[in-house]
Design a protein that fits this description.
The structure is a homodimer. Chain A has about 675 residues and is mainly beta. Chain A folds into three domains: about 90 residues, Nuclear Transport Factor 2, Chain: A, CATH 3.10.450; about 100 residues, Nuclear Transport Factor 2, Chain: A; about 350 residues, Beta-galactosidase, Chain A, domain 5 (Distorted Sandwich), CATH 2.70.98.20. Chain A has seven helices and 33 strands.
Chain lengths: ~675, ~675
């Protein structure tokens, strides 16, 4: 399910002595390498020997961001932006929350966290933990008993979850076998439980409960260099690429991206990964930029497995909170992860020692032309006229890939000129499999909790729940969430030959509990409106959320421990009032959390959300029943949603968009030809 | 909602004297121009003066197709294919069904149809009907009374539906005003009812019930040539195109398309439009082509409007059955409707006189590279190793655009190397609007049945229901439909610290009634399996259907006339046993149909569907609440579904796919630069 960056292969320490001063930054810019270093220096001074589990931007409240923006716009010189860093450290076995002001270089907040749960694991401690079994005599014996080679064993750390009992800061290790493959995920050593105390950094519990056949290496390879090239025409396609003779059409100014009619801020956080902020769209009719989205990011990624047996029951992972969705962001491969016209952006985060680390090519930005049509019409109904107007669709995509151990999540944010923002996630990578004695389904006599994918290999049933934090500010902060229910009306008065029709009943959610929805349970449009503004015609100005894949809420019982922790999955959609401290839908301290800091607990207050600054939390969910096609590496499965303007504009905003000049592609030559 | 090709602007009569003889055709090939001519000649001889409402392939039964294929494969010379044409004519006010054998050039079947409903309208009769009001004195007076210019009026034909009373073969006309725009759809003349008797070709009823303001022309223009070019950067994007230095990678052999690991037959029918048949995928492991899809096409497109008032209640259109989804296929525009690397294909159909007409560029085929990832994994969990394997996703797309009057439907069939077939529909074009006195929503005091889109302009609520006929033949004809229900299990014996998990319960539908589903009502995978074959591991071989947009079944009452006719919309999914005569989900004679020949009536027999040759009928539905953005032309809204292999292959079928060689794009030059 997850795995840390255990090697510094592409992570070079960088000390940016030449980086522009903090004073010129946008208040939403992620901490740069110099700022990270500054935080480390200050905190290390007061708390020597700290382990840094998080350093990120202590994001100013929305009001101060907005007033900074207003001031910046009104003045020729840039106003210094508020810059504070939030850090979570472990120091003397305690969790500290420290806020450092980067302008005054002082600690302005410092408290010991005494609640439930622990901070995200650091990459370094995980790397250390992984190695412990290899020198732990009982484990060495277990490996020998199985007739395996110790130098071919690799272990991976797994958070232990919470099952009703207070736990120390521990992880479990699951171990895998390489020999003959690099796909260790496909070769688990079942039956062994290794618990590591992370504070002591030693194995605290060890069981070798049962011996299970290790799946074969055969058929698990996925490296091109090691594949027997296919001998059939069937697997080769002709070369194809995207060409922009004038170069990309977007501009990157610091962390601000400007493209076509969109402006937005592109951030990065070691926990959330990519963050889209302050997205505004230019309204041609009004001749001004209008606010759409204050912020959006993946707040949590919950992946519970559905096997209650001893070595698997606890596998109920919170990839953002336990590991860091940003920490697991790995460098994108040019020409394969992103097309030829992509521009790449690096990201920075702090290692366990607090010093800055760089992820090269962490994000890419590119214009996408997939051959689709933005709008069209052919008119042949007017005698003597033949009218055909077609506008090709070119969009802008921001991409990140987070590889949480075995799984790869391709996260796209796509901006359309027509005003839509589309969030997509592609699931690829390698399944978490379980070793089994079974070699054929005929032999399965009791519940197996998964699909037999190869001999001795079960793909365990599981879910992927990505909770998107979506803070729309439609023409301002004060917004309402409206269900446009489509309701059937009977014609009862014989006024029509029709007996029925449907119409729209607008139901505004007044408080949080009224907004919780299992999407699809009833026919309804889900709209965020600005109730204080209307179009010239009087329609409420809004954006609606359209699922692009089947909603999937949790099937776990409400009282089950992982469900208590991942309670956001009870509904596909929640709406809360904006609260700068409510960032992580399953809680800030997700490791061994107990569900006391989740959206379900926040929402118990049933706060007012009508005509307030509101945040939507939408879950893109997948119930994953593995199939043999997913083995040994899984073809991408996609899901997502669209945020689409609905009476936001007075009319089609791309009505008078120009068509890009054609490119005469046969003029291209290629050195490969 | 619809409109005929009223001008022959791009329709040139073609007489193919050089066309290869019928004997060399594939039995699923659409009738070519010579064959159409032959049918016309034969039928005209026996039924002089006939009006041809349909000529298409009388498709042989599946068994004879399959035996032809088997014979063809086993012999070096091609076996003559069975070639018969089905034609529906009106002759002496009667509907005749005639089957012509093209090899023997004889009529082998001829009966008068005496049931309910009428054949599809012909383009020519509609064109004639449209002109009638302009010389009809009461109408001329109505126009004059409204202070409008007669030469700026254009009328459009609308099927009258069925509302409990037997009707003659009539259409209603709705009329529109041009002056100052070519977007007549935006300027309805409300309050006038014109009924045309199509047999007499004269106006049979006329009412001028009420006068309503005609919406303004201002703001309705959508032609690039007439637009004031936008003066802001916001609407311009840089040039972008797709390049394939070695040309397209697919081969077109007659109507067979071969690309990567896919083979399929690409057909066209004047009623259905594009038809995909005999899609097989090469299994690298088995080194053979395996059957996936026998046939798929849009069987019906039902568009009911939700305004029960006098001039609108009847607007409940069956675009395929009343008009012809293929007949409304209009030529695609190179570089805009399809990318630069597309190959275009013409289509042929018969006019009302039975003579062949050509639709140039009716279909396009292209390889799509949208910058997406087919599969990927980065592995950093092995000490000393950094592994990153990424395969870009290149797919093959077949596209058609059908413009049914005001609306444009972009129909895509996308083939993925990983085995998926994705059906997409993009909705664009122009809304069907209603004239109204309202100029602001504040003035709306009673139910308006729509959204105020512009002054005096209501976008009436409506649905789009596209029923896809999907005849999967997974490794052969005998298949079963299985709901893989995901059901929550409680852990009751304290054997685990978990309290719950979900597992899969496979429920095979034994008869038709067991397969009807409102998709999303329960967590389930929808799978078609071949119960007679299993993978080596013993998993049932199958394909599953994954919605790519929210399912939307009908909200009309069961007893409402349009719902009786469009009963397929009661469920998102139906499954029937293969029956060559069950092609049109809402009936063969859709015009004024009474619902006695729909899938709901076929399914009343509750036939067995387990381990049978089965057909899925899945509806891609949209409840459309118009928004101002949809005016005066609508940005594309997309929906669809994916057919994805699930234990069809023994493993990931694109594991050893090669990566196309990179193209060094900066080497491109362009004459436009």
């Amino acid at each position: 399910m997850f795995l840390y960056m255990s090697t510094p292969l592409f992570i070079s320490l960088t000390f940016f002595t030449l980086v522009s001063a903090t004073i010129h930054l946008h208040p939403l810019d992620p901490l740069n390498a110099m700022e990270l270093t500054r935080v480390q220096t200050i905190v290390e001074r007061s708390h020597p020997g700290s382990a840094f589990h998080y350093i990120g931007l202590a994001e100013p409240d929305k009001s101060s961001i907005l007033s900074w923006l207003a001031t910046s716009l009104n003045q020729s010189s840039t106003t210094p932006s508020p810059r504070q860093a939030m850090t979570i450290i472990r120091h003397h076995n305690q969790t500290h929350e420290i806020i450092v002001d980067l302008l005054t270089t002082t600690i302005i907040y410092n408290r010991v966290y005494t609640g439930f749960g622990y901070p995200s694991l650091s990459g370094e401690e995980v790397t250390m933990a992984m190695k412990l079994p290899l020198t732990y005599p009982p484990f060495v014996i277990s490996v020998r008993k199985r007739g395996l080679k110790l130098d071919q064993v690799v272990c991976q750390p797994y958070p232990i979850g919470w099952f009703g009992v207070q736990g120390k800061r521990e992880v479990k290790l699951a171990c895998y076998y390489l020999e003959g493959t690099v796909n260790m995920h496909a070769r688990p050593l079942e039956g062994i439980s290794v618990v590591v105390d992370l504070e002591e950094m030693k194995i605290s519990k060890y069981f070798d409960r049962v011996r299970v056949a290790v799946p074969k290496a055969e058929g698990t390879e996925y490296r091109l260099s090691q594949m027997r090239p296919s001998t059939v025409r069937a697997t080769m396609v002709n070369r194809i690429t995207v060409v922009q003779p004038d170069g990309p059409g977007f501009k990157i100014d610091g962390h601000i991206i400007r493209w076509a009619n969109w402006n937005f801020h592109l951030g990065f956080d070691v926990r959330a990964g990519v963050i889209i902020s302050l997205a505004s769209i230019f309204d041609v009719q009004k001749q001004e930029f209008r606010r759409v989205l204050y912020k959006a990011y993946v707040s949590e990624l919950f992946v519970p497995y559905m096997d209650p047996t001893e070595e698997w029951y606890y596998k109920t992972f919170f990839d953002a909170g336990e590991f860091g969705f940003g920490l697991c962001t790995l460098p994108l491969e040019p020409l394969r992860d992103c097309p030829a016209n992509a521009v790449f952006i690096d990201a920075f985060y702090a290692g366990q020692d607090g010093k800055p680390l760089q992820i090269p090519n962490a994000l890419c930005v590119f214009e996408r032309y997939a051959g689709d049509v933005m709008w069209r019409h052919t008119e042949i109904g007017i005698p003597g006229e033949f009218i055909r107007e077609v506008r090709p669709e070119v969009t802008l995509v921001v991409r990140m890939v987070s590889t949480v151990g075995n799984y790869d999540y391709i996260i796209d944010w796509e901006f359309k000129q027509s005003g839509s923002i589309v969030a997509k996630v592609g699931l690829s990578g390698i399944l978490e499999v379980k070793g089994t004695a079974y070699t054929h389904t005929d032999k399965i006599k009791e519940e197996a909790f998964g699909t037999l994918l190869a001999e001795n290999t079960l793909g365990i049933y599981h879910d992927h729940f990505l909770s998107y934090h979506i803070d729309l500010d439609i023409d301002g902060e004060a917004n309402s969430f409206v269900k446009n229910k489509l309701v059937t009306k009977r014609v009862k008065d014989n006024s029509s030959l029709r007996k029925s029709y449907w119409t729209v009943e607008k139901v505004t959610a007044r408080t949080e509990s009224e907004a919780n929805i299992k999407v699809g349970a009833e026919a309804a449009e889900l709209v965020v409106v600005n109730p204080n503004k209307k179009t010239k015609l009087g329609n409420p100005i809004g954006y609606r959320l359209i699922p692009r894949s089947s909603p999937a809420s949790s099937l776990l019982s409400d009282d089950d421990y992982p469900q208590i922790r991942g309670a956001f999955t009870k509904y596909d959609l929640w709406v809360t009032p904006y609260n700068n401290s409510e960032k992580w839908v399953a809680g800030l301290y997700a490791d061994q959390s107990r569900g006391d800091d989740t959206i379900a607990t926040w929402s118990e207050r049933d706060r007012e959300i009508e005509n307030k600054d509101i945040v939507l939390w939408y879950t893109v969910g997948f119930h994953h029943v593995p199939s043999q096609e997913d083995f040994p590496v899984m073809p991408t499965l996609s899901g997502g949603f669209e945020l689409r303007p609905t009476n936001f504009f007075e009319a089609n905003p791309v009505l008078n968009s120009r068509v890009p000049m054609p490119v005469n592609w046969p003029n291209c030559t290629s050195p490969h030809k």
